[in-house]
């Protein structure tokens, strides 16, 4: 349904259209196969390898990030955590403005591209230019998801799925705690 559960996008799509809400037999078999395959390998190296390849403009030691961020921000941005659905005040925020990275203040998303995905996480159909980077997240044993991070500091923001609205058809499912909202200056 969303970030935390993160069924494959195709399954999400089916569920959205109300197609029984269950895996088809074929999808189930595929998921089972994938699960078997990943369980037989160690999960950590994939992510560690990918992170090693990524370098960012803003880098801090783990201790520096820990003191710069709140415990909740640190858990999401630096440890790839996921906030509990429907806990972020930004989920239902539709004021005009810009959503910045909570760690380095880079503008990430405009309110113009925000929509209510019904998932309980702030959702957007596109990021601002040159704002984000992506990687393959294999931390869930039954599927690979596309992870989204701040391109400047590498802070984990959420995931992107292919069941969003037009014109992009994408759903950037973000953790509200990883962002701060800057309202458009009035007047
Ligand atoms: Zn950042």
Characterise the protein shown here.
The chain has helices spanning 9-16, 25-39, 44-53, 62-68, 71-77, and strands at residues 97-101, 107-110, 114-115, 123-124, 132-137, 145-150, 156-161, 171-174, 179-183. The protein is α+β, with helices and mostly antiparallel strands and 187 residues long. It has a single domain, classed as Peptide methionine sulfoxide reductase (Metal Binding Protein, Guanine Nucleotide Exchange Factor, Chain A, Beta Complex), CATH 2.170.150.20. The strands form two sheets. The chain has a six-stranded antiparallel β-sheet, covered by helices on one side. It has a three-stranded antiparallel β-sheet with strand order 2-1-9, with no helix packed on it. Strand 5 (132-137) and strand 6 (145-150) form a beta hairpin. The longest helix has 15 residues, at 25-39. It is globular and about 40 Å long. The termini are far apart. Residues 101, 103-104, 106, 150, 152-153, 155 line the site of zinc ion (ZN).
Descriptive labels:
single chain; 187 residues; alpha+beta; Metal Binding Protein, Guanine Nucleotide Exchange Factor, Chain A; six-stranded antiparallel beta sheet; three-stranded antiparallel beta sheet; 5 helices; 9 strands; 25% helix; globular; binds zinc ion
């Amino acid at each position: 349904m969303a970030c935390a559960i993160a069924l494959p996008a195709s399954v999400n799509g089916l569920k959205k259209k109300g197609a029984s809400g269950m895996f088809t037999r074929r999808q189930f078999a595929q998921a089972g196969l994938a699960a078997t395959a990943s369980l037989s390998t160690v999960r950590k190296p994939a992510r560690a390898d990918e992170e090693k390849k990524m370098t960012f403009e803003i880098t801090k030691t783990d201790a520096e990030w820990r003191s710069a961020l709140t415990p909740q921000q640190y858990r999401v941005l630096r440890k790839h955590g996921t906030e509990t659905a429907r806990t972020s005040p930004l989920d239902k925020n539709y004021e005009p403005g810009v959503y910045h990275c909570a760690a380095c203040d880079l503008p990430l998303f405009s309110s113009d591209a925000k929509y209510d995905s019904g998932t309980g996480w702030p959702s957007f159909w596109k990021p601002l230019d040159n704002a984000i980077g992506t990687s393959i997240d294999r931390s869930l044993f039954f599927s690979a998801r596309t992870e989204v991070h701040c391109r400047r500091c590498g802070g984990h923001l959420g995931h992107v799925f292919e069941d969003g609205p037009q014109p992009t058809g994408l759903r950037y499912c973000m953790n509200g705690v990883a962002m701060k909202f800057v309202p458009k200056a009035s007047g």
